[in-house]
Design goal:
Elements (H helix, E strand, L loop, with lengths): L1 E5 L4 H9 L4 E5 L9 H11 L3 E4 L6 H6 L1 H17 L5 E7 L22 H16 L3 E6 L2 E2 L12 H11 L2 E4 L3 E2 L2 E2 H14 L3 E4 L6 E2 H11 L7 E4 L20 H5 L8 H15 L1
Parallel strand pairs: 1-2, 1-3, 3-4, 4-5, 5-10, 6-9, 7-12
Antiparallel strand pairs: 8-11
The structure holds NADP nicotinamide-adenine-dinucleotide phosphate.
């Protein structure tokens, strides 16, 4: 299977690459292919002729997107449309986000739930889902959440919540919000799941996140406990009392993969299990 990956330089791409070793992989980082350039996208996809495209390229800086919505739209919406428009006969997998939801339902979100993003990042990813659907029917949308991995494709430590907590806690007490709840997901488990999707080429909408739900505060404590450090340095704080951020976050948006499981895909492991498998690599990355 010839698999082309956009945004392969990021933390998800870094976990995907070794899992594609048995396949014919075309790994394209930002420098190799800028997805905002439709001519380049068309040329590269045409000459590569992939069976499957995993479109992971995105501007993932949620607060940055709020400050520069033009760049967010160009990367996340136009970039996705460009890839989908040039997909030809290839099966496309688009990696989307829990931030398409407003987090006010009071329960986990399934694939058929109503979307209502509350920040620019989520709006652009939702528009990207719609743009991709407008260009190709041979499409799976895999929504995931709170991604964390050890490294980027260059081997540099990845930037994510787990790495921030480990770094922050080494400096002293840390305020972490206890009224934002989600489904933290290890990039390794996401990569396994996306590969299973690629092998079956099953079109549709799928929620692909580690099982269970946890607040950022409890997740931070679990990270420190798992790393053999003192979880007592973490202090619970309400979002309204925390350092203000440019973009709003959904208060309660765990993902439930009802549609994923009903198609016979294996449920992803529980978030605590994923964290214990991921932590050694994250600690090693420093
Ligand atoms: N991180 C999360 O918590 C999270 C949650 C839900 C869904 N997702 C989705 O999961 C996917 C993978 O995320 P990730 O965590 O691996 O993010 P990441 O580490 O930021 O990787 C995304 C990659 O996309 C690249 N990129 C940015 N603009 C591009 C452009 N115009 N053309 C080509 N590449 C471009 C980035 O390169 P540069 O850094 O060099 O610009 C980066 O290497 C994304 O689609 C994201 O929206 C992420």
């Amino acid at each position: 299977m010839r698999v082309l990956v956009t945004g392969a330089g990021g933390q998800f791409g870094a976990e995907l690459a070794p899992r594609l070793a048995a396949h014919d992989a075309v790994l394209l980082d930002h420098e190799t292919l800028d997805v905002t350039d439709p001519i380049a996208v068309e040329g590269v996809l045409e000459s590569a002729g992939p069976d499957v495209i995993i479109h992971a390229a995105a501007w993932t800086d949620v607060d940055g997107c709020e400050v520069d919505p033009g760049r967010a739209r160009a990367t996340n919406v136009d970039g996705t449309r460009n890839v989908a428009a040039a997909a030809g006969a290839a099966f496309m997998i688009f990696i989307s986000t829990d931030y398409v939801f407003d987090g006010t339902a009071g329960r986990a979100y399934t694939e058929t739930d109503e979307t209502n993003p509350v920040q620019v990042y989520g709006r652009t990813k939702l528009e990207a889902e719609q743009a991709a659907r407008g260009e190709t029917a041979s499409l799976a949308i895999a929504r995931t959440a709170w991604l964390y991995g050890a490294r980027t494709a260059t081997g540099a430590p990845a930037k994510n919540f787990v790495a921030s907590i480990l770094r922050g806690a080494a400096r002293g007490p840390l305020d972490v919000v206890d009224d934002q709840v989600g489904s933290p997901t290890w990039t390794g488990d996401l990569a396994d799941a996306v590969l299973a999707l690629a092998e079956r080429r099953m079109s549709g909408m799928f929620h692909v996140a580690n099982a269970g739900a946890v607040s950022r505060y409890d997740f931070a404590r679990a990270i420190l406990e798992g790393a053999g450090r003192d979880p007592g340095v973490v202090r619970a704080v309400a979002t309204k009392d925390a350092t203000p951020r440019a973009a709003a976050r959904p208060p309660y948006a765990p993902l439930d993969g009802v549609g994923w499981r009903s198609e016979g895909f294996d449920p992803l492991p529980e978030w605590r299990d994923a964290l214990s498998r991921a932590l050694p690599g994250i600690l090693d990355a420093g």
